Structure formats: C-alpha cells, structure tokens
Amino acid sequence: MAERRAFAQKISRTVAAEVRKQISGQYSGSPQLLKNLNVVGSISHHTTVPLTEAVDPVDLEEYLITHPLAVDSGPLRDLIEFPPDDIEVVYSPRDCRTLVSAVPEESEMDPHVRDCIRSYTEDWAIVIRKYHKLGTGFNPNTLDKQKERQKGLPKQVFESDEAPDGNSYQDEQDDLKRRSMSIDDTPRGSWACSIFDLKNSLPDALLPNLLDRTPNEEIDRQNDDQRKSNRHKELFALHPSPDEEEPIERLSIPDVPKEHFGQRLLVKCLSLKFEIEIEPIFASLALYDVKEKKKISENFYFDLNSEQMKGLLRPHVPPAAITTLARSAIFSITYPSQDVFLVIKLEKVLQQGDIGECAEPYMIFKEADATKNKEKLEKLRSQADQFCQRLGKYRMPFAWTAIHLMNIVSSAGSLERDSTEVEISTGERKGSWSERRNSSIVGRRSLERTTSGDDTCNLTSFRPATLTVTNFFKQEGDRLSDEDLYKFLADMRRPSSVLRRLRPITAQLKIDISPAPENPHYCLTPELLQVKLYPDSRVRPTREILEFPARDVYVPNTTYRNLLYIYPQSLNFANRQGSARNITVKVQFMYGEDPSNAMPVIFGKSSCSEFSKEAYTAVVYHNRSPDFHEEIKVKLPATLTDHHHLLFTFYHVSCQQKQNTPLETPVGYTWIPMLQNGRLKTGQFCLPVSLEKPPQAYSVLSPEVPLPGMKWVDNHKGVFNVEVVAVSSIHTQDPYLDKFFALVNALDEHMFPVRIGDMRIMENNLENELKSSISALNSSQLEPVVRFLHLLLDKLILLVVRPPVIAGQIVNLGQASFEAMASIINRLHKNLEGNHDQHGRNSLLASYIYYVFRLPNTYPNSPSPGPGGLGGSVHYATMARSAVRPASLNLNRSRSLSNSNPDISGTPTSPDDEVRSIIGSKGLDRSNSWVNTGGPKAAPWGSNPSPSAESTQAMDRSCNRMSSHTETSSFLQTLTGRLPTKKLFHEELALQWVVCSGSVRESALQQAWFFFELMVKSMVHHLYFNDKLDAPRKSRFPERFMDDIAALVSTIASDIVSRFQKDTEMVERLNTSLAFFLNDLLSVMDRGFVFSLIKTCYKQVSSKLYSLPNPSVLVSLRLDFLRIVCSHEHYVTLNLPCSLLTPPASPSPSVSSATSQSSGFSTNVQDQKIANMFELSVPFRQQHYLAGLVLTELAVILDPDAEGLFGLHKKVINMVHNLLSSHDSDPRYSDPQTKARVAMLYLPLIGIIMETVPQLYDFTETQNQRGRPICIAPDDYESESGSMISQTVAMAIAGTSVPQLTRPGSFLLTSSSGRQHTTFSAESSRSLLICLLWVLKNADETVLQKWFTDLSVLQLNRLLDLLYLCVSCFEYKGKKVFERMNSLTFKKSKDMRAKLEEAILGSIGARQEMVRRSRGQLERSPSGSAFGSQENLRWRKDMTHWRQNTEKLDKSRAEIEHEALIDGNLATEANLIILDTLEIVVQTVSVTESKESILGGVLKVLLHSMACNQSAVYLQHCFATQRALVSKFPELLFEEETEQCADLCLRLLRHCSSSISTIRSHASASLYLLMRQNFEIGNNFARVKMQVTMSLSSLVGTSQNFNEEFLRRSLKTILTYAEEDLELRETTFPDQVQDLVFNLHMILSDTVKMKEHQEDPEMLIDLMYRIAKGYQTSPDLRLTWLQNMAGKHSERSNHAEAAQCLVHSAALVAEYLSMLEDRKYLPVGCVTFQNISSNVLEESAVSDDVVSPDEEGICSGKYFTESGLVGLLEQAAASFSMAGMYEAVNEVYKVLIPIHEANRDAKKLSTIHGKLQEAFSKIVHQSTGWERMFGTYFRVGFYGTKFGDLDEQEFVYKEPAITKLAEISHRLEGFYGERFGEDVLEVIKDSNPVDKCKLDPNKVWRMTPNAL
After folding, report:
1. pTM for the full model?
2. Which residues contact 1332 (CB under 8 A, 6 or more apart)?
3. To 5 degrees, how large is the angle CA 1588–CA 1592–CA 1594?
4. Which residue has the higher pLDDT, 904 or 313?
C-alpha cells in the first residue's frame, strides 16, 4: 500500500468530506456541494457511486416509452426524441466533367469491364445525418458565424468612451477665468458665490414616481420587467471562443473522388514564321522531365500553316475534323520541377535529300533578301510543290527547340540562355513561388523528392507570358532518339552549350504560357470528349493533354479511360538484303487478320480526320537503321479478344519518280498480340521482322515464335524496338490484381476452367487459388491498388457478404477478405502519409466509405435488395447465421483461441422442407424468386446504368435466360441447406473483427476507423433497405450482433488502456475512432445499449487509473473520447432534458429511495429533486447520462486534490464551453422554455464552479494592484486584512479613478484546505465563468430560488464571491484599451514578458507557483514599482489572456469599433445576469426570513459592479436594484454594513459626476433616497452626511477626470428632489439636505482650484495641505485629505513626504483610539510619534470639546480601528524604507511592536524584525554615502501680478538627489512658459535681491533657481 501513489489512495477515502464539515460549522443544515470524489451529497446510508466511476445509465428507449411527454408538439416535444428524418440515405448523381459520360461504345462487355464502368458511373450512395451540422463538431463559434450572430447589437454607452482624453475637461474659457483667480489663505472660497453658482445650474431629469410609496413586490416586478426587456439572447455570441487547435470532434466530409489533375498550364500557339515560306511545316509540343528522363505528357499536334500551304497537301489529307484544329492546349504537371522542358518538334513533307540539305535554304535565305533571291525561291517552291503532290502523306524530321519551363514561370527580364534567344514580353516579372504540393496524391517516397529543391515550382499563380522563340536546331538524322534529346536538354542548361556552336534555323514561334483557368470553355479531354461548358461545337477547341506523371500518382480511377500509346524506337535493317533505305513504319490496330480488319481507332494529329486506321512514322532519308520519335495514340476497345493485335508494316519509300517503281514497297512485317493469357500486353519489345506477309492465324502467336516456312530479317533476331504503354482504368497491368479480378469474375460467370497466365484452373482447385489470390493482393504494386481501390474493396466486401458456392460447397471467405482489407488499408496509410486528416484517416479510404460503399445488391428506390449491386450471380449462396450459434462458432469466439478460424465449411445439411417444396413445384418463377433472394447475374450495363424500369426488365430477361443452367444438379446442390439469403456485412465484419487475432487484429486496430465507419454505413443501409429506419431501436439489430459490438468495444477499450504509454499515436487514433463509432451508433442503435458501451469504456479507464502514478495522459484520452461522443447533434435529447429526477427503478438499491440523499434540511421529495438537480447525484448522472459524465470530468479534474490533472484544466473547461456555446447558437433551442430545459442539464456546474473559487484567476488583481496570491491560509486571513488599510492611497498611487475602499484583499472566503492551490489561467477562468453565467441566465428562476433556499450561508457567500469575480472578469476594457492593444508592436518587451509569463502560468507545476509568487511579492508592496505600471499591467493581462490579437497587428478603425461594441455588450449582459442572480438571492432571503447575513455580500457585489466600468444601461438597472435593496433592508446599511454605506456613497457620488445624463439622474435619485431613508430611521442622516462629505473629498483628491460641472447638476437635482418631496416638507429634512449640498458644493469649489494646479505638483500639494488643515475639526475628512496627499507624493516617488503624511494619519487615528479606549499597548495619542515628526502635535488640536468620538457618523471610517492604525503604520514604514530613511523605519516599528506583542502575532513580529534587520544592515553597509543623499534643494522666486497670490513669494523646492540646476530650470521654464506664454515669461539670471520697480508689470518674472 505504501507504494501506491496519492491519487490511487485518495479515491477511496472519505476524509475530505469530514475535514470540510469540521471547518464550516454552518455546513450541517445544507445539502453539501458535490465536493469530494466519492461522496455525492451528504454521506447517506446507501452506497453511492464515486465521481471517478461511471454510473449505470438509464435505459433510454425504455424510459421514453414509459414516460410519454404530455406536450403534443412544439419545441419541447422536439427535445424528447430524435426527429423522424434524422438519417437519410441519398443517391446523388456524380458530377460528370464531360457533356457525355465516358463509356465504351460496345454493348457487349465482359464482367470486369462492366464492373469497372459501373464503378465509374453509378450514383454516390451517401448517408446523411440531417442535423449533423448542429453538433459541436460542425457548429463551432467561428469568426464569421460570430459576426453573423452579432449583427444588430445596440451600441452600449460607456462613460470611459465618452470622456475626452486626459483631464481636458475644463472648458477653454474657464481656464482664463481660473488663472486670474487667487487662492485664499483658507481652503474655502466665497460661500455666497458658491451658492449662487449652484442655484443657477440646471438639474437633470427627475425619475418619475421615485417618491411614491410603492410596495416592494411591485417595485421588484417593475425592475424585473425592465431588466428582462431588450436583452441579448445569445451570451456566447458576445464571447470569443477559447483558443483551441482544430477541435478534436471535427470530422471533415471527405472530398468527392474525382479525376486527378496536377498544376495546369495553358499553352497557346499563336504563330510560326520562317524566313522563307515554301512548304507546310507540322509542329508538336510535349513536356519532358530531364532528371527523371521521362516524357511527362502526350504530344500536342498543332498546325500554324497558311491556307495556301495547307492547299499543297489537299490530295493527301481528308477534310480536317474540328477536334484536330486546336492551337491551345492545357498541360497538367503533378510534380513541377526545375527539370521540366517544353519541347517543340517540327516536321515537313518528305523530300529527296537528307535533313541538312533540306534545312539549308532556311538557314541561308533571309526574308529581307526575298526580291534578290526571287528566282531561287521560285525554284524551291516548285520543288516543294512536286514533293507535296507525290509524297504528301510522308513526313521527315526537320527541326526542334526547347523552352525551360521554370525559367518562364520564375524569370525576369530577357532570358538569353543557350543559343535560343527567347524574347519575353514585358508582362513577365519575377515572383516568389512556394510550391503547392498536391498532397492527395503524393506518396511518401516521392514526397521527399518533391520537396528537395523544387520550392520555386508553382504553376498556379505566375504572370502570363508571351514567348517568341527565334532559333531552332535542325534535327540530326542519327540523333533522333529520346536518349539523344535528354542529352541535348541537359546540355542546354550548361553555359558552354554544344548547341551554341550549331548554326540555327531562324524562325519566329510565338506562344502564350499562363496558368490554366479553373473552367475553360471549349475544352476536349484526351479522348476528345467535350468538357462541360461547350456552348458551340464550331469553335476551335482547346485540348487537354494527358499527363504521364514523372512518378506514381495515388488516386483511384473515377472515369473510363482506355488508351494505348505506341512508340516505335529504332529499326536495324543493316543486315537485310535488298534495297530498303527510306523506311517508314505503318502501324495498324487490327481486330482480325484480314487487311480490312484495321480499326479506325488511331487518333489523328493536326488538320486531319479525328480517327484513322493507320499511322506512318517519319522517314529518315537513306538510313537503313533509322531511329523514330513518333507517338501513336490508340483508343482501345473495351473488350479485347485474342485476335486483337498491332500490325507493323515496313515500307521503303522511293523519293525519286522512276518508271515502274511503286511509291512504297513493303520490306517487312511484325506484330504484337494485344492479349497474352487474358492480360493486356504492354512494355518494351524487341521484335523480329518477317520478310513475308504473316500466315493465317498469326495474330494469336507472338512473332518470337518461329513459324515454319517464314523468312525473317537477320535470322529471326530482334531488329525492331518498340514500346507500348497503356493508360487505362480497365486494365490493371498488375498480375496479382488481374488474377484476383479474373477469378472473381469467373465465379460470377460460372465459367470453368479459368485460364490465368499459363494456368488452367479447374473448379475443384478454384477455392485454393481464390484464397491464395486474395492473400497475394499484398504483393501487388501500390499504384494499381490505389487506382482500382473502389472496385477492389467492392469485390472483397462482396465475397464477405455472399460466399461463393464452389463445386457445391459454400466457401466462407470472410476471414480472408477481412485480412486482405486490413492489409490494403494499412499499406495505404503507411505509404500515403501526406494524405491523412487530423484523425489519421486516409482521405482516399474516407471518401470510398462516404461516397462509394453500399451494401452489395442494393439499389436505390428498391426496398428489397434487388440484383445488380456489386454485380453478383446465382452462384453466391450464403450461410445465414442461425439464431442458435453452431458450437464451433462459440468456440471460435472465445478469445483464448488465437488462431480461431471462422470458416464454417462443410456440406450444407439436407434440404429443408421449404426448399424442397419450392424446387418440387413445377411452376418455379425463377425470376421472382431470384430477385427476392438477391442473386442473378447483373443486367448488362452500358446501355442503361440507371435502375429504371428498362433495366429491371433487362434484369428479368437475364434471369430467364439463366434458367437453362439453373436446372443443373450443381444448382440443386447449391440450394440444399438453405435459401441463398445474404449475409449482412456489418454482422459479418463485427464477427470477423472479434475473432481475429495476431497481426490481422493489429492491422485492423491500426485502422479501426475504417472498419467502424464501414460498419455504421452498412448498418444504416441495412435499416434503409429493410424499411427499419423508423422501427423501434430495440428491435433493429439481433442480439448476437449487439454481443459482438459489445465484445469489440470492450476489447478495444482494454487495448487503449493497456497500450496508451507504448503506442501513443496509435492509441490516440484508436480512441478517437472508437468515440466517433459510438457517436454514430447513437444515431442508429438502441441508445441505452450505446450508453452501456460508454460505461464499459469508462470502467476500463477507471480501473487502470487507480494504479497509475501519473493519470493525466489517460484522463486526457478519456476527455477526447467524451468530447467526441458529446458532439452528437442530438446530445441534448440524449440527456433526457425533460425528465424529472424521479428516483429511477434502477437495479442498484443505492438510489431506490428519494431520501438517498437524506440530509438535515428536508426529506420532502420535491426538495430532494431540487438538490438532485444541482448535484452530481446518482439520479442526475443516470438520467442525464452524457451531461453527467461531462460535469463529472469537470468536477474531478478541477478538484484541487486531483494530483497530476491540472494540465487538463483548459481542456476540460473548453469541452464544457464548447458544448454550451453550441447549445446557445442552436436554432432548435432558441425558445426560452427550451433553453431552460437545456440549462437544467448543467445546474451542477454552479456548484462545481463554487468549489473552485479558490483556484480561479483573480481578475480583481488587474484593477486592485495588490496582486496577492488569491488563496490564503485561514490563519493568515484576519491578519492579512490589516494590509488593506489604505486602499485609497493605493488606488491613488495606482492612478485609478476610484479608491476601492472595500475591495477585500482576497475577494473570497477562506479556502477549505490550508494548502496553496494551483491557480487556473485567466483564459480558463474566464471560460468557466462565462459558462456559469450562461447557466444562470437560462436556468429556470424558480428552480434556482428553491436551491438557493437550501444552501447554507457559507455556500451562498461562495456564490456571491463568484459573482463578485464575474464582475471583474467581464468588465468593459474601454475603446482606448482596444486602440492601445492595436498600436502595440512586438518590440515591447514588457508585453513579451507577460506573454511568456502567461505561457508558463498556463502550464503545469511548480514553475507556475514560483512565477506567481514572485509577481505577488512585487505587487504586494504597499507602494512601489508595481503601481507605476498600473494601466500597463491591466490592459496587458487582458490582452494576453483574452483575445490573442498581437498576431494581427493593425486592425482597421471599424474592427476596433466592432470589438469595443462586442465587449461593451458582453460586459452589459454579464452584469445584468449577475444582477438577475442577486435579485433571486435577495428574494430567497425575503422568503426564508433568515440568512440576512448574506445581504452584505449582495451589497458588496453590487458596489463592486458600480465601481467597474459599466454601461449606462446596466447602471440604471443596478441603481434600481440598489434602491430596492435599501428600501427592503434599511437597517442593513445604516447599522450593520457601515463600511459599505461609505462605499455606496462614494460610488453614487462618482456616478453623480458622470458625463452621461441618464447615469446622473439615477445616481442622484439613489443618493437622495439614501439620505431620506437614513433620515426616516432617526430624524437625522448624520451617517450619510458624513460619508458623502468624505467620499467627495476623496473623489476630489484622487480622480483624474472628475468634472465638477456635472456634479453640480446632480447636487441641484438632489435639491430639487428635496424641494418636491411633499411628504417630508414639514420636517427638518429639506434644510439638512440643503446644508449638506452647500457644503459639498464648497468642496467642489476647492476642486476647481486643485484642477487649476493639476500640472503643478508643488502647488497642488500645497493646496491639499491647506484644505486638510481646514478640516482640523473633522477627523474623517482630515484623514481623507492626508491620505490623498500621501497618494500624490507616492505617485511622484516622494516616499519620505508620503511617509510623513501617513505618520500624521496614524497620529490622528491614535488620538481618537486613545479617547475611545484605554489600551496600554496602543500609542498615547500624537505624542508617541514626536520622534518621527516634529509637526505631529498638530493632530492633537482636536479635543473632546470639539468632537465627541462616539457621536453618530464621526470617526466611523474603517481606519479608526486598531487594525487601521497598524495598516497605516506598516505603509509608513514601507515608504520610509523606500526613501532610504532607515532610522525612521525603526521609530515606526517601535510603535507597532507593542501592538503585535499584545496580540501575540508571532508571524507579524518575525516579519517586522526581519525588516528592521534589513534597515539597520543598510545603514551599516553604506559604502560611499551617496546612497542616502535624500534630495537637492533650490530657491525659486515668483514676481508679477499674473502670479496672483504667489507674487513676490519665494519657495524652497526639493528635487531628487543629484538634480542639476539646469534640469529644474528647464522644467519650470517649460511649465510656466506653457502656462503664460513664452513671450511673457522672463527669467532673472542672478541670485541678488530683486528690485520689483525695475520689472515690466506686463510680464511675469521668475528667478533662476539656485542651489541651497
């Protein structure tokens, strides 16, 4: 046991609950909040299920039957059950690129061709989950979606946005007036003048009915109605979704399988012009890859001859088909590289003479000399004319050139390379290209090659270029081969090219090269089919040129293509006797041996007919061993026979016209049979050539066979080299695939024996051959496997579903097929790595399942599985699984038999009666019986592939046609046993998977997703075809299948659990696959059963977790699993949102009684239900099963004791956030009643978050700069509160507008455990809190109220703390903050540090603790560096946590406006939700008439929200609630929460000075009512008077942008209320109000003066000092002003002065404490402080006769207490320390030490002595003396009437140490120059006495400061 880690021990202990009970005495009478892991609710007498275990789920189907909903229709009804149209099976016609689909012309086809064609033409069979898009996987809060939902938001008005910058509130004209005002000796101006100002100001609008006596209930109702109107419905629309990678539950719909294209390039040939035009020239274009030494496209032939030139050939050329007139072509390049060249070859009509002679004229004649050489040219023309007439059908090679493609794509300027001058038009520019790799087709090996060095090869986005090629090279007769070409091309890239030395043929070829448009018009495919959008057939077309990719491309075939390319390469007739010199080869494709059997299937070149029966190669003059560079393209017939062959006839062409010499003489023959043993024959051939015509029946033999009596060239040696290449989606060109398909088709046709290769397979041997061919599929090449993937998988599935009958035996091929499938998909997975989605699903396989796969023999529109399908015939029988399993099978299924073999072989038993009767009856209507049992030969395809009436008739015919051999005995044997009904694929698949073992099982696990998805689709199709989609779920699938599924899920779960550490990546994939599978099953199966599967998985994980030292990886997997399952579109319905938590009749006795949660508060069933709804009780977790799991995960992971799980906080919070945000935007739940039901599923979330309060990020820190660790140990709590003492000062230092008088140091209760918690990141906390608000907003209020009633005071306070935190968390940032965030750049190191810090804090471990602590230490110092950067800190944090927008730096103005608009609306809505909740809490208190103690908490939250940046809308409602609260519980403020009264006065006054009139109206109304209520309690409102006066003083002292004009209007409003208040007119109240208002107005007048000196700190402090002196008789106000002064000093780092102010404050407090109570250890008034400050006795001027300390409202501030005194002294000591006045530190602590000694506070004493030690050691270790230079002093004088009362005054200025004279001179000159004008200010340079008479009275003079 000792070895077991804490996590394992913890789960079974109950200590946590006990500890908590002891800590909170108040817990006893309340239901406990789900705290610990194993006790749900209070410890009951029954066994409960700990949170780490899954409960037994409810039987959902049963529940729905037994609990019918009363509602008939409407949104609630839709919550109960899935919609009837939830799943649809759709047959969607596939898009065809071409106008007519590519199918063979022949009507008779062999089965393989028919299957291929079907595979390429049948509709997609798609299963659609109609509402899938509403699940969280498809319903993310994307930016666009958010924007859509944010339309029409009202603009919220915020004062912070309205206020002008800085403190430029003063009007310009006022400035002049104020400058001339002089400051009186007293801090008071003229009373009369002030009153006059007030009387003349205008009040704001009065609130109607404010003074009426309306009953509280009525007020509440009105407030409620107003609050609820115009609210934003969707909270999450205002909240950005948390930063996540691609959500794990997102499954993209796979791409539709389609034909593969690489990057497409459009080449237009514009013109070809030579120096002389004497004859037609023929051109072709093709792409070559030099590195791969491969031609990578077919030839494109184009003809740019003039009509005159074409006319020369008219006798030889038939009329040209329009398809051959193309001049533009689209090339596709899958692997673009630097090695691709565009090669242009030219040919001309054959003539006498070799190529050099024929090219000579083109080199020597120039166009310019045409007239000079006229005669010669005429001669040349007539010669050409003769040759065209005679030899017009023959060609000869002429010239060639090449263009380096990538230079065009990426070049700039002129490209003079090699000797080809390629002029490029100015449209060309260099760009930077990044290669767009087409990952869907690139295999692993080729990937590596593609990436190397090919970064610049992007053909999709370059600038179109027009090239002019000016030089051609003449062809060398002996260097025509491709090998020679590659050498030339490689040479072209070298600078010293051999080609440069050759004499070029000058010409001009203009071509355009550009990226091909997406859908060009008038396009023809390589088969000459018109591509869609071909508006007019008479337009010159563009040809798509077929690509021969440089490396393998892995894309399944989707269209019919059957082309053959023949490349004659060379001929060697050197040893042939006789004359054979000008040799051409005639190529024909023959279907028989008669010369007339040539087929018109050879594609024409340019300007000729579309197809011809023969093609000739070009002639090399007088060469007995010519090379050829011809490409002959043939359209292969779909079905080939043994008689199809290629015939090559060799001719000698006589170029000279001689008598008796024929034009062409045959000099040899050879041929290639097209089929060899049933396989297409392709590849390299070296053929012998016969001198004579081949004999009869030659075509079935190869020419290599020595036929008797035939003469051969060179003794039957191979002399003719030719290559034959097929590009076909019919012929696999792989022996293993061919064999497999041939065997399957032989079975189909029942044609025996089968010939495969040299073998003849007899029926008795067929089974073994079939099995070996299935296992041999592994050896096949990957590329053909991928190309024929769809057909291959279809066939394998067919073998599983319909085992064939061979020799009367049913052969079970399920296992073999399953293994083959597993190995194929694993091969794809391994080799095509660039091709997976985030879940590791190969896209080719995913799209096969989604679009292609269907149950064999199932047609759309025919519910009974009709024939056709995957093409099957009678001879498939199946052995249906009997209800009772054969014993052998049960054995097989036991997991111990690793080599279990599911082949259930053996002869079927004797025919059962039913079969006998069928066979016995004479009138057997076979067509029907066969259609119904599903297995005749499929209808012939081709003519009509759609399942229409015609094809059905054809099917019937085919059935009857079969009757001839259905009578045979083998057929009767087939029927013995049972009818050939089909096996069900999903059942078979599940069975095979369960029983497989070893490597097969491993490979199935590797790609589990594939089999799962296949199974689900099969299940849906099965239900669809059997009309069971509406059947009750319990009866949809047989029990044995469900057993298999359960066994499968269980074993896979145990695989996950046992292997997650070893095979991490595989297990992650397996985990998500399993989750998606269960998610899918929820749509089709018994949902209770699926829940039990989920429980199984949970159970496996839980049992493993106990033994793990670090559980986070496994828990993380479980979170992914759960998140995927919960992304189901009907997640809410699955949770039974309408069920009431009645105790379910569950098998576990634990929850059988309603009192299973029996606790002290009530055993009433109704209340019990309420408690169950809010806690993760067993009933809750059973009935709301998935929601229960989600919330349980949240509770367990957020539990502070859960070790090792805090790395998962963000993950689990995002899961909940994601679900809620999805519900929020779901149109199905937009109805409020429905939404309340949905929210009900999340009620325990409130409790869970309440438990996490100590761990939440402290958002109040960012406002209240005292960034203390958010959780403090209980014993720390009281004493810590001492440091809260001078919040005002702190806030003044921090520069915030409002002193947070009662911001508690830590806003939360003491944490229940004393240890430090890991704090959540701000982002996670924010997400949690928005979820909380969503639940509070949407939950049913009455339910909430009932629950609040049950909560203890402690728990309610927790809730209030949470709301307090929410206020800070969602506070509006302000437009300026968004602008500042935007102007930020990455250069700001502070920002980067904050981000870094956040990165560290967001992660796990002690680092976080460390960083957090160090930050806390820095910020905890009462005044210091942390305060200076207050604004900085605040927005910086928000920025880093909230919306990571540093990436996109510059946002437009509109975007900033939009962001501010959203943030404003979020802040308003969040605060209104908080207000709604507070109202419910208050109602709870009113109802129960107890728990008044929590009202203080309510008030605290209200006040806090008033202190934050709020919109006018919110503040109106907030003030209304506050007024209602005070009117209901007046004694709360005036007797109990006195500090809060002070706070409230401050907040109200703050808003009375708002620039927005509605806010002022409400604030002044609230303030007036406050006075009125205070007066009504005791005919005096001294308390409010006092607090308001103090508040105004502190507001005046600290607020930066305080506007007295607005406040004056509010004061006037209050006066107006007093005058109009009829009820109290007869009392002293109106006069008291008037006095107060006038008094306040006086303070305002002081403010005016202070504002004037805002920029002159010395004058400002002087004025504050005088104001404070004026309050000598009012201790509270004097203290306020002393603190204001301290704040101002601290701001300017005058720490010594700040410390003196604090000492005076402490002395003042000490005076009053000594008057109130005589405690020996407290200081005896001011005298005690004399050693620190000699002026301190001023504070004793107030004696008993002036003020009585126990008078109402006097000295009531929180500083007039012992802890207040301690706080002031601590701050004073800290300030002295910062000022370097260490002796004074000692004096201060002398006063403090006795107090702490008396309280026996050892902790504080240890701190003090530590600080004393520091102070003294600093005195001792002064090294140079410079460290304690306290300041530099200067004398400054002012002369001139414009200075007012400063005229002729001289002052001593204290500046920081080592300040130079020049510095202070410059500062003061700048300040006064700006104030009075540079021209008016004069500086007196010397320091002699000044004679005023000599000075210009119109100027102001300032004496140069001189150092003292």
Report:
1. 0.76
2. 1245, 1246, 1249, 1362, 1366
3. 120
4. 313
